[in-house]
Specification:
The structure is a homododecamer. In chain A, a hairpin with a 2-residue loop joins β2 (37-50) and β3 (53-66). Chain A is of the alpha+beta class. In chain A, strands 1-3-2 form a three-stranded antiparallel beta sheet, covered by helices on one side. Chain A is 19% helix and 57% strand. The first copy, chain A, contains one helix and three strands. Chain A has one domain (6-66): Flavin-binding protein dodecin (Dodecin subunit-like). At the A-K interface, α1 and β2 of A face β2 and β3 of K. β2 (37-50) of chain E pairs antiparallel with β2 (37-50) of chain I.
């Protein structure tokens, strides 16, 4: 049966390296406790600045996962 | 005491039949594990297309429920 | 002369049956006192939940009507 | 190879019957000339009113299809 | 290590007293079960009216907390 | 019969005292001529400044009331 | 006493001549029945096209007026 | 049969003269290749500045036209 | 001559006391260096949380002031 | 070297004559103190009404200029 | 003559490598059939997740190109 | 004393290399004249296209810095 229900949660991942890596970090963290994660959408792109450079990229994403039947 | 706190979660329900039914499916699924669900709000109306027809209606909703005191 | 002026009002219709019917109910109610209603636009789709089902569909619409000259 | 590119177009379908049917009509019309249509998203829900009832439902959707490789 | 992940949840707090107090009530309630709450953002300001006065202020907020490492 | 229709109007209330009081003033004024007012939602928070202080808080709200059957 | 309450209504004015004139037409029409109109804000700029030209400019505006004390 | 389908495209017209003229230019250009154009909606109003004056008005519009049956 | 030009700047004020006070603090700070400040509009309402309470209210506002002629 | 940085400021220009002229007035005023202004975008279109007519058009724009290297 | 007209289309590019590469892929694909492409704007940043990692970055962009005169 | 006031400015940085680098360039430029820069938020992601490739990434950001006490 394919009439699935999906839940979305909102996370902020951070990385000193890049905006893409901050997204990957949040997804890796969510995958520790959630199965069936299927997609993400970026909600907000922010960062923390120190000494004229980006110290942390902070990416807020929605993550969607299928609820167990 | 009536100074309640409510929590909102975001779900996507799907249905081969209609947009209204996709909403009902998501609410029925959420009701399996949550009490005190009071309202929903539609956030996004999408669907999956196959052979020139709507194969699945996909309704993303916010659902609000009262936290236990 | 065709340089008409239109006014828009915002209504919420409710129905136990379907989202489309909640829209029709609001329009029928508005038509009791307003002439020249021409169009509607859906602003918000919500509903009231009881026992894991949709008890009322609540559709908020803008309704446009031509002012008398 | 799965690094596809998709194009989105915006359509308004109309129906005297229901909001869901107006969406189906727009998709059926688009399918006459486009292959590989995969999804739709509702952008706007409007309608034309006559004699206190909904004469036409007008659903504006985005339709996404995969470009040929 | 400072590449933290944060989760956001959405709550509605209510208060008979003031809009600020409704926010405080929601945060106090969330703090009963969540550690590491760091910030909130107001999403919606609403209220329930009775006899020409505000009977309840209803403040919908996003609350962000750091996930345990 | 509970398939009510509600109308929303948009008001700006002002107060020299506080943002909450500006909302209360608008609701009190609307209650002079309307029955069945049930809820409000804040649309815009502005104010007029004089001598480095807030001279008037100006709160724009939507007010919803049930139409007579 | 200066703690006034203002009401906003939404109108669409039309003109064969220009976008500015369509706004002026809506304001002139509203002034036939309302006193104390103070400001407008443009909400939507649309038009009707015939033979490759703009036949009517259709400007949707919010108009604010002070309620009588 | 009146259950038409409409397609919308997005254009930016430019003019050295005025904002209205930039809209007219985009519509005239679109009419060279499209029949059945019925309406436009302004999406963005921008311009290019040179020597403290507006050198080009740049109006981005959506244009709607009826698909052939 | 009354064809004034106004400039808007965006500020975040903070206060341990209340949301209204955070707005007042930002305006007082801006008034140290700017004359002719006329209005503000709230853009974002946030706060910093410690021990289940609001430690700082953080109000982001736009402030408008008249440029000298 | 062409990796320029641009700054945007927000202005409201006013004119008794037309919406386009209010934009031109704001740009002319900004050009008195800023070099390298390249573009504008309209953010808000408002006006002040007196005696059923538009007394002032008030156009809020963002203006972009290149920072000196 | 410089009163050009531009058309915008909406595309989703995908890449297993990075968000920037997904944008480049969509532009390269569009350039196979369109001349005079001048700019893009990101509309949505999404991705497909498998085994706790980003399997595809999916970037939705608007692409603008000058219509032939 | 910790009731700080922050100011936000809007910048567009450009880079031939990547979207992240365009952000870094804007922050580096702002840091030449501003102290106490703490955060940024991405407002718009655009780029200039030449020969089917991205010639410049153009990232518009808000930058927040603490005002001197």
């Amino acid at each position: 049966m394919t009439e699935h229900t999906y839940k979305h949660i909102e996370l902020t991942g951070s990385s000193a390296e890049s905006s893409d890596q901050a997204i990957k970090n949040a997804i890796a963290k969510a995958s520790e406790t959630l199965n069936n994660i299927h997609w993400f959408q970026v909600i907000d792109t922010r960062g923390y600045i120190e000494n004229g450079g980006v110290k942390y990229w902070q990416m807020t994403i929605k993550v969607g996962f299928r609820l167990e039947e």
